[in-house]
Amino acid sequence: MQGLTSTLRRMTGKRRAIVDTPAGAPSPLKPIDLTDDASVAEVLDLAVRVGEVTLAAGTGAIDTAAQVQFVAATYGLNRCDVDVTYNSITISAYRGPTLPPASTMRIVHYRSMDFTRLAAVDGLARKIRLQVPTPSDALAELDDIITAPHPYNRWVATLAWAGMAASISVLLGGGVLVAVVSFLTTMVIDRVGRVLNRAGLPFFFQQVVGGFIASAPAITLYSYQAELGISISPSQIIAAGVTVLLSGLSLVGSVQDAITGAPITAAARFFELLMMTGGIIAGVATTLRLAALLGAELPVLSNVAPPDITEVPTKVLAGAVASAFYALACYAEQRGLSAAFAGGFAGALFFLIAQQVGFGPVLSSAIAATVVGFVGGLLARRALIPPLIVAVAGITPLLPGLSVYRGLFALLGDQTLLGMSALLAALGTGGALAGGVTLGEWGARTLRRPRIVERAGSLRRPSLKVVRPDARRIKRPDAVRSLLPIRNRKPMDGRWDGER
Asked: Which string of DSSP letters, residue by residue, matches 114-172?
């Protein structure tokens, strides 16, 4: 119990991801000359390029704007207006009444779920806060981060996507055969998707091809299961493949933008989300329609029974492993993998418990996502990684792949009411997941907010945290002691002047 208490105390302490407290720089210890246009332009370029990486990774518009504003404020540009939209970042800095404002804009041309790069940029922002390197040194380090190769081979990412699909199929109730087929199917989806991406095929049609590949092997095996002497559930295989395809979409970012006050960016991201989901649906629908035309036997749609209590440990472990595989597929470092495993474990556990209690899938998803967001916020402080890594990885196994398939199958079978109900349930589940994550992260940020900075006139300086191990001795960090006046420094006898 003592070790657990110590761990929880460290998790809820000051070591926080920079996204928790990015709004105010501690103090412009090395402020730039605001009259030097070149220096101001260099700082603005550094700020928008940091925001480019965070926005490309799926971070919400409000958090991205706070990150950009924080970097600029660290170097003395305290009064900045930052506008973040779906694919652009604009910043304008006020330099006083006698100088014209300085502004710059950057277009984000790509989407990259590279968690190692995101964590490295987060570490750079933390370094800027603590050490305030020169803008040229920070830009050079940022260039190294952006141009660095992925930490893992691409085949490692392919195997991770396949392992994620296999774990999700187990979470949905599948056996060994279903897991193996899901594993192999997802490997094909990933490799074919890479080829199509290099050929420049629009991402919508890549999703169509992915949906086709996800469902074709399952329908084929189901049609010939009597001849092969096997028993297989194609819905679990298709749902696992659909979940993998859905995991790369910016569900969390779109709902976070809508909740936190960025409606334009939220609308753009949500429309993209609907389009990409429509591509998956089109691919699965094409497969089912071709199977019906060829006379293949299609599975019977049945209600999904809640999991038995004896299956909960296996499914919780499957959810945790799926989250870790997703983080690995997105090139997360070791700390990110451990945090993603813990987030997936907590999410799957609370989701299954809520279902056992009797809550519906939407409310169960909201409860689980809130726990994931809360746990992710705490783990981000301990692991010094962005909370987005834990949040996205933790809710990925809970994405409504099965509901999407059931709704589509019902619509193709002229069961319009059942199909629309399932698709609306899928939409509600996705919104509940993203909204729950947002609420959980807010709870983690407000659980314990240390006084990182305090005002001193028009500037901000580090607050002094005094630790009193006993009544006679006061310890202060070395970085803080260097800022103290000479008369307040610690004398040779080990006591402070104020105590004497």
From this structure: -HHHHHHHHHHHHHHHHH---HHHHHHHHHHHHHSPPSS-HHHHHHHHHHHHHHHHHHT
